[in-house]
Structure formats: C-alpha cells, structure tokens
Amino acid sequence: MASFESQLNSLLVRAYRSIEQIEEQQLSSLRRMNLTIGEIHLLEAVGAPREYPEGKTISEISDCLGISLPSVTLAINKLVKKGFVEKQKSQRDGRMVHVRLTALGNKVNRAHEYFHRKMAASIAGDMEEEEKAALLRGMGKLNAFLDRNLHKQEKPSEDPS
C-alpha cells in the first residue's frame, strides 16, 4: 500500500488538474465573451459590486492575486476595452483609481462563483461533521504551507559569498 504522502500527492495533483479542466470547459461555454481563465480570476479578484461598491484599487487586486502592478494594470485595461470592468477616480482621493465590475463582468463572475459553490456543496454533501472539520483543518494546513512557500519565493535571494 502506498504511503499516506504518496496517496495525498496523487489526490492533490488529480484535484488540481480536474478543477483546471472543469474551469476550461466552463470557459468554452463563455468563449463568445473572449475571456481567458486568468481574466476570469481577475474578475473574481475585483469582487462583486455589493461587496466593494467603490471597487478595488490596482494595488489591492495585485496583492490579492500576487501579481505585479504593471501586469494587473495591463490586464485591467484589456478588461476595460472588453467591457467587463470600469475604472473610476476615487471620490475621497482623486489620485486613486478604483476598478469595478460592469454588469457583464458581474454576470461572468457570478457564473464562476456558482461553479465553486456547487463544487464545495457536492464535496460536503455526504460528509459527517467530523469529516468536514478534518477537511477544513487539512485545507487550512495546505494553505499555510502554500503561503509560506510563496513568501519564500518573494524574498530576494541572498548572496552565498
């Protein structure tokens, strides 16, 4: 019998690939909207209008996704041209620009959120409360590991000499 770590690794890889494939299938139904998976995740990072009525700044979106400011700016400008987001100067601070979903962007974002809610509900449906608690603890540990490793890569490498 394979070790726990080996089984866990296989399950994580399979889950990651399956989620990616399902998102690609979902995207194919949205092809007429000319969006990539990356752009859909960017819309998700901008957030729903009810949650962020004024919108988010480019810096907030950059922090949320861990993507550089210039890359986010470029991607947001493309989404503005496609009609999925709009940029507006802050009413409190004219130097700041907020990005908000348009009605079309919100529609795409809600469809993507629905997929994620449906996936979580399907997983939780047959689970006992102890299993749910254990899964949440495990996912918390997975996210902590991923966060630690992401921050390691962000630090500048030290000169070994």
Overview of this protein structure:
The chain is mostly helical and 161 residues long. The chain has a single domain, classed as Arc Repressor Mutant, subunit A, CATH 1.10.10.10. Helices cover 66% and strands 7% of the residues. The protein has helices at residues 4-29, 37-46, 58-65, 69-82, 103-124, 129-154; strands at 56-57, 85-89, 97-101. The chain has a three-stranded antiparallel β-sheet. Strand 2 (85-89) and strand 3 form a beta hairpin. The longest helix has 26 residues, at 4-29. It is globular, with a radius of gyration of 19 Å. The N and C termini lie far apart (46 Å). Mean pLDDT is 86; it is low at 155-161.
Question: What topology does this entry show?
Answer:
Blueprint: H1 4-29, H2 37-46, E1 56-57, H3 58-65, H4 69-82, E2 85-89, E3 97-101, H5 103-124, H6 129-154
Antiparallel strand pairs: 1-3, 2-3
Helix pairs in contact: 2-5, 3-4
Task: Offer a quick outline of the entry.
With 161 residues, this protein is mostly helical.
Strand and helix order: HHEHHEEHH
Write out the strand line-up for the largest beta sheet, numbering strands in chain order.
Answer: 1-3-2
What would the average pLDDT be, to the nearest integer? 86
By CATH's scheme, which homologous superfamily applies?
Winged helix-like DNA-binding domain superfamily/Winged helix DNA-binding domain
Rg, nearest Å: 19 Å
Identify low-pLDDT runs. Answer: 155-161
Fraction of residues in H or I helices: 55-70%
Counting DSSP H or I runs of 4 or more residues, the number of helices is: 6
Whole-number total of structural domains: 1
The CATH topology corresponds to: Arc Repressor Mutant, subunit A
The backbone outline, from C-alpha atoms, is globular
- Given helix and strand content, the structural type is mainly alpha
Portion in strands = 5-15%
Give the biggest sheet. 3 strands, antiparallel
- Label the CATH architecture: Orthogonal Bundle
**Which CATH class?**
Mainly Alpha
